[in-house]
Amino acid sequence: MNLGGETVQALVTVEDIHTYYGKSHILHGVSLEVGRGEVVGLLGRNGVGKSTTLKAIMGLVHPSQGRVLFEGRPITHLPAHRLARLGIGYVPEDRRIFRLLSVTENLRTGLDRHGVSKARKAELLDKVYGYFPVLAERRSQAGGTLSGGEQQMLAIARAMMLEPKIILLDEPTEGLMPRMVAEIRQIIDTLRSENVAVLLVEQNVPLTLEAGQRIYFIEKGVVRHHALASELRVNDAVIHQYLGV
Length: 245
Ligand SMILES: Nc1ncnc2c1ncn2[C@@H]1O[C@H](COP(=O)(O)OP(=O)(O)O)[C@@H](O)[C@H]1O
Ligand SMILES: [Mg+2]
Prior knowledge:
Bound molecules: adenosine-5'-diphosphate, magnesium ion
Helix content: 25-40%
CATH class: Alpha Beta
CATH topology: Rossmann fold
């Protein structure tokens, strides 16, 4: 795929997917691409199908039409745990922290099914704690005692334990204080520097334009437009058109 003159190998390709919840037709042909190591934003008003798009990539919603490719191979009908092993991390909106497990135990759940050596697990845990010093300080605390922002970090950190090639992030800054929003922004930059791609669903437009390289706009279940973030930063007419802000 070609991004403003630069050729990047596609990591995830979504081709014209349609999904239903019961009889409600939700996605009406969503197509998008995320390159290796690329941070891509997905913006749109409430209820247009952003979360459903992430769920469809993660195998949690099954498209009735269209396909999803990972590194060029069709993955449309694979179960979520297989996709996790292939290298797709997913942090849902509700985070799904185990409230009674400690921070370390929460992180280890990311490794359980994985057949990784003990030494490697310890190494990964150290590495992830290196990125999240706040979590390292609270490693023995129960997940449920963390603040909203810390729980979001824990959810992202747990996804990182699987050494994904891409993480799908669903509104990671929702309800967080500005200081925590800045931390999440930094984590996205860290992922990018580690060559981990991110597909970022957000309501926070400035953050998405800063953190993302390319942006897709979704409207009523269809991708209407995509553009380089650098173009949108200097010309916000498109933002007005699709988001009304
Ligand atoms: N589990 C579900 N069952 C029925 N309808 C759903 C379900 N989840 C989402 N929807 C509907 O699908 C549409 C798209 O939802 P969603 O993908 O969550 O939107 P977004 O993330 O863009 O706000 C909305 O109209 C929503 O009400
Ligand atoms: Mg959503």
